[in-house]
Amino acid sequence: MTHAPTSAAPRRARTRPGITRPGVRMIAIAAAAALALTGCQVASDDADTTETGAAPVSVLLDWSPNPDHAALYTAQYTRAYDDAGVDVTFMTPANTADAAREVSLGRADLAISYEPDTLIAAEQGLDVISVAALIPTSLTSLIARTESGITTAADLEGRTVGLSGLASQQPTLDFIAREAGIDPGSISTPNVQQSLNQALLTDQVDAIFGAFRNIEGVELTAQGDFVVLPATELGVPDYAELVIIANPSRLADDPDYAERVRAFLTGTAEGQAAALRDRQVAIDALTPETQGSYDPDVLELMIDATLELLPEGDFGRQSAEAWAAYATWMYQNGLLETEVDGATATTNDYLPGANG
């Protein structure tokens, strides 16, 4: 069966290396500086077109290529971005918290971020807005070895829980602890950054929080007996785990930028549709991009777990009301210091079929 258009060979994505989802490769400080410099160069050239006439778009990922990016890499593999008229370069971050800053400063055209952290960025005055939901449901989970005896949040009292460093993680875990009737201060929470699985597998921590049930959860359970507790089962309301963020000032003032954002989202929607039609397309797209990071058989399990979360059609659509409600919950529970109108942090105006 042919998985890419017959008119052109499958296309490999251009991804600038950085961190890996399992945390097996760490980026050096020099590489982090290089990312910032190359990011500036990519964004500064955004008005030009490539040799093929396509408009360049730089996209900063939240992590290295992984199944959460199935729509992105399938769009690249099937040349959906070419058809949409954009030439996409994916960049991996030096830090998982880079996204909002880089987009706000114009160093990246777009970035993959998280709904909670996009709202935190809005509170901090960063110039970002979510233009699409890439993964429209929460993935964040608490994961522990079965033998640890951790089966509920109440079992975390006096334990060590590794975090990956996102601004939303500590206050969310504090909320979960309070809901379970234990003192958040009794939990030790080292920042293990990208090494979530490694920290758990080497018994540096009793549990990890911030791991994704469809990525780390699948990978760990393939290796042994682990308990995976989604945050939504621990009292946290559902939200869009991964979102695509843009710069709203540029959207308003730069018609070329706005058109490139629309074209990118059109291509990404086609990529998601192709992946949902045939999982093998997503496997073929992601396998070379994740080589060395995941066991091939486990990668397929991760892709299956991810595709189950994606809607058929209506790619990227977000509810302003849901964002407003989640922002209110964040404020009421200490994740935001001031009230933020979540409805203003998201828009559907650049999705396929939207008027604009």
From TrEMBL:
Entry's Gene Ontology BP terms: thiamine biosynthetic process
Protein name: ABC transporter substrate-binding protein
Origin species: Dietzia natronolimnaea
Pfam families: NMT1
InterPro entries, A to Z: NMT1/THI5 (IPR027939), SsuA/THI5 (IPR015168)
SsuA/THI5-like domain span: 66-278
Top-level lineage group: Bacteria
PANTHER family: 4-AMINO-5-HYDROXYMETHYL-2-METHYLPYRIMIDINE PHOSPHATE SYNTHASE THI11-RELATED, THIAMINE BIOSYNTHESIS PROTEIN HI_0357-RELATED
